[in-house]
Amino acid sequence: MNPDWAAFRALFPTLQHKAYLASGSYGLLGAPVAAAIHQYMDDRLEKGADWGGWVGKADAVRDGMAALLNTGPDEIAVTTSASAGINALASALDFSGPRNKVVVSNFEFPTGAQIWHAQERRGAVVEHVPEAPDGGVPLEHFERAIDERTKIVQVTHVCYRNGQRLDVAGVAKIARERGALVLLDCFQSVGAMDIDVKVLGVDFAVGGMLKYLLGTAGIGFLYVDRGHIEGLIPTVGGWFAQADTNAMDIFANDPAPTAARFQSGTPPVMNCYAAEAGIGLIRQLGVPAIEARIREITGEAMDRLTDTSCQLATSRDNAQRGPQVAIRSTDAAALTERLAERGVITSWRDGNVRAMFHAYNDASDVGALIDGLMANRELLA
Ligand SMILES: Cc1ncc(COP(=O)(O)O)c(C=O)c1O
User: Fold this and answer.
1) In the chain, where are the structural domains located?
2) Is the CB of 109 under 6 A from ligand 1?
3) Fold for domain 34-282?
4) Phi and psi for 255 in degrees, rounded to 5?
5) Ligand 1 near 360 CB (within 6 A)
6) Whose CA is nearest to atom 14 of ligand 1?
7) 163 lines ligand 1 (CB under 6 A)
8) Pairing of strands 324-328, 352-356
9) Distance 243 CA to ligand 1 centre (A)
10) Which of 28, 293, 313, 357 lies at a CB distance of 3.0 to 4.6 Å from 326, suitable for a disulfide?
11) What topology is assigned to 5-29+287-375 in CATH?
12) Rounded to 5 degrees, what are φ and ψ at 331?
């Protein structure tokens, strides 16, 4: 049965007064997520401390992420950000031998390139994969960069700057043939697009819960394929990364036998409440239904934008895009501000106004966006 999208929309009070199109920046706060945050406060006021319950919340988030990505819970680390997950992973890799190359696409979010450049002090050599003039990063460019010296490839699913989707499965296939690992950054797609890490063939995946997963900032995840866990020992760790958190052993580091070894300290408890509720909302609707709904709305938006002569940085091809529609502007910061004055909330990067849709958006939001852009035509490229 098709989900009741109007009922879903009604869970987000902000939509009563704003055309909110910035979910790839920060997802809206839904009523069930607000209730979960209140629940955290109620539990604190009532119980004081509840370590067992708090660890249970982190485990509920782990279970939810495992279900969304088609992994086992033992393959998920609950972290405080995507950056924390990448750092823990990087710390476990050895760059001292001949296989010391890190390949990163030019479509990565800065954190995913900066952390790998930080490994240069440990012997890593970073090679960037450039985009093509048509605005994508074709597989041939990855073919050229990935070789027998490549340790790991970082590839984003959907580019945060222009909404272009990369061929992750294609990159993973090339990497596998050449003995390299693959880290997928799915922050701009998880919750909005169906992701099966096993089908994609990636070794690791990172993201967080504040965007399309409808949770909050300060919580993220790292997926680690079960086959790699034993051989990777992070040097960025802590007591919540141990085999037994309660062992309190100060004479040894005893990493968890699961992906929990990529965690560090006390879980972000309040954020776990919010993330559990956000993931719950997504799972209730089902990601395939959400993805189809977003594809429909973004498709309608792109067709109408093209009809009104807007130039798009995002491909119209469904296989090359996700939930973001990037519109070229001569002054994206000013245009974003003008739209915000009309209650149309977007964000901008790289000369583009980014309209980032979730399943709670509808045709009225598309209409408000088009009206806002038409009223500011002089700022369109
Ligand atoms: C694609 C992508 N990767 C990584 C990040 C950064 O994540 P964090 O701040 O959790 O480290 C973002 C944040 O916007 C992002 O969009």
Assistant:
1) 5-29+287-375, 34-282
2) yes
3) Aspartate Aminotransferase; domain 2 (3.40.640)
4) -60, 145
5) no
6) 25
7) no
8) antiparallel
9) 28
10) 313
11) Aspartate Aminotransferase, domain 1 (3.90.1150)
12) -150, 85
What's the pLDDT at 124? 98
Model-level pTM greater than 0.85?
yes
Give the residues of the chain that fall short of pLDDT 50: none
CA of 350 from ligand 1 middle (Å) equals 16
Residue nearest to ligand 1 atom 7, measured at CA: 82
Give DSSP secondary structure letters for 70-120: T--GGGEEEESSHHHHHHHHHHH---SSS--EEEEETTS-HHHHHHHHHGG
**What is the spatial distance between Cα 150 and Cα 183, in angstroms, rounded to a whole number?**
13
108 lines ligand 1 (CB under 6 A): no
Pocket test of ligand 1: the residue of 25, 187, 348 to mutate, having most ligand atoms within 8 Å of its CB, is: 187
Among the listed residues 283, 319, 284, the one whose alpha carbon sits nearest the alpha carbon of residue 299: 319
50 C-alpha to ligand 1 centroid (Å):
30
Q: Which of 146, 167, 193 is nearest to 290 (CA)?
A: 193
Determine the 3-state secondary structure of 223 from DSSP: strand
> Of 204, 200, 265, 198, which Cα lies nearest the Cα of 229?
204
The tokens describing 377, both together, are 């035509």
Give 154 Cα–ligand 1 centroid separation in angstroms: 13
Q: 107 in ligand 1 pocket by Cβ < 6 Å?
A: no
What is the distance in A from the centroid of ligand 1 to the CA of 223?
15
Instruction: Give pLDDT tens digits for 108-152.
Output: 999 999 999 999 999 999 999 999 988 899 999 999 999 999 999
Which amino acid is present at 168?
Answer: V
Contact 208 CB / ligand 1 (< 6 Å): yes
Tell me the CA distances in angstroms from 331 to 348, 350, 352, one per residue in order: 10, 10, 8
Check: CB of residue 77 under 8 Å from CB of residue 291: no
Query: How many residues does this entry show for the chain?
Result: 381
* Index of the ligand 1 atom closest to the CA of residue 108: 1
pLDDT at 222: 98
